[in-house]
Amino acid sequence: MDNALMLGMQTQRVMQRRMDVAANNLANVATSGFKADGLLLEEADQTTAHADEDPRDIRFVRDIGIVHYMEQGPIEMTGNALDVAIEGSGFFMVQGPSGPLYTRDGAFTLTGDGRLVTSDGRAVLNSGGAPIVLDPQGESPTIGRDGAITVAGVEAGRIGVANFAAPGALSKVGDNLWDAQGQAQGQFDGVVLQGAIEGSNVRPVVELTRLIEISRAYQSAAKIVSGADELRQRAIQQLGR
């Protein structure tokens, strides 16, 4: 395969990956606590591309992973006693299939039997890793800045909040949840805010602009591939004559 085809097809592949990431960011612009992603690229130092005059003139890039942007999202006051947001670093602990998972989405509710759960029904864990259970018929709970839940002046539990030295190294596992990937928990140094929800940190205008740029780059790469293929066909026809 000649250089033009290789360069065009590799560019299309990278642009497709970038478009998928940007589109997913836009799809979660209204998802509470969502953290935007970006594509991590590097220049490929070894390729099979060649040039007669100077092979160093040919540059290929490849995607090597996803980077997570962990900046704080906007905090909106809702007044709902079971809505909580984290100001600063940290994650709420929730029950996963094989251990705790983590989220920044603090839109919690109570089930009929008094379990504190996330919007998709996962049990919220306390600081000891056990599900939090409150009296569904009791007074409205008060949640302190350290996550302590008090009802009628008596502590009924404490929301588990985990902190990590490298939060960007956590892995997204779907449903707005994160897996610690074996990373040890550190001391929580943020603040828990009752009656508030953290919004997504996606910037819609930036992502829309990025999608337009990616689409144009993809079209340019497609023209390179099409043009190279057309030249190849003409060369074959001429040689065949």
What can you see in these coordinates?
The chain has 241 residues and is of the alpha+beta class. The protein is built from 2 helices and 17 strands. It starts with a helix and ends with a helix. The chain has helices at 3-27, 204-240; strands at residues 37-44, 60-68, 75-77, 84-87, 91-96, 99-103, 109-110, 116-117, 142-143, 148-151, 154-158, 161-164, 171-174, 177-179, 185-186, 191-194, 196-198. The strands form 7 sheets. Strands 6-5-12-15 form a 4-stranded antiparallel beta sheet, with no helix packed on it.
List keywords for this structure.
Flg_bb/hook_C_dom, FlgE/F/G-like, 29% strand, alpha+beta, four-stranded antiparallel β-sheet, bacterial flagellum, 241 residues, Flagellar basal-body rod protein FlgF, Flagellar_FlgE/F/G, single chain, three-stranded antiparallel β-sheet, elongated, 26% helix
